[in-house]
Amino acid sequence: MTPPEIFILIPGRTSSQGTTLNEGKFTSNYVEETSTLMMCAEDMTRLSLKDGDRVRLRSEQGFIELPCQGANLGRGYPRFNPGEFTTADTLARREADAALIIASDPMGNFSQPAREHLARIPYIALDPKETQTTRGPAVAFTTATYGINTGGTVYRMDDVRIPLRPAFDSPYPSDEEVLKRIEKRIRELQGFPAITINGHTH
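Request: output the structure for the sequence above.
Response:
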């Protein structure tokens, strides 16, 4: 059994909590806002979590299970507001100075202002296939396809999680392998020590 990870819990109040307080602490909007755990989106991806999944928090005082949501940490502290902190909105407002695009095609799907800004900044693209986005990055990696060439997870329409095993090998590395190598190299260049999570050194 994989041991639980240790995180730092930072209590805070969202703007939505403040506005729904006027409606009453027992309204559904207030209860939902104060009963949701905001997490770093990168941690959620690494732990195979998606918005709405329930996680268990345990401390010396006890434990509680809450739904989680990805939060924006661009300013060093968590912010959450759908329609404001999405990748498309951040790019359209020209707030990003670099980007890492994984198995997505923003150049083929985002708004014109977002695409124009992405074209102006350096970005890295990881994708198993060629897309409009993989044609213009500073660096592009062709990667294996999750669920076909490497293990992965899919969700049914009723949110049931289904683990997938690879059907056949690929000559290309997985997204996870590429990202771990990038992280390791960045730590080497910046002089940071390697970190160990669940027995794996990064």
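The chain has a mean pLDDT of 81.
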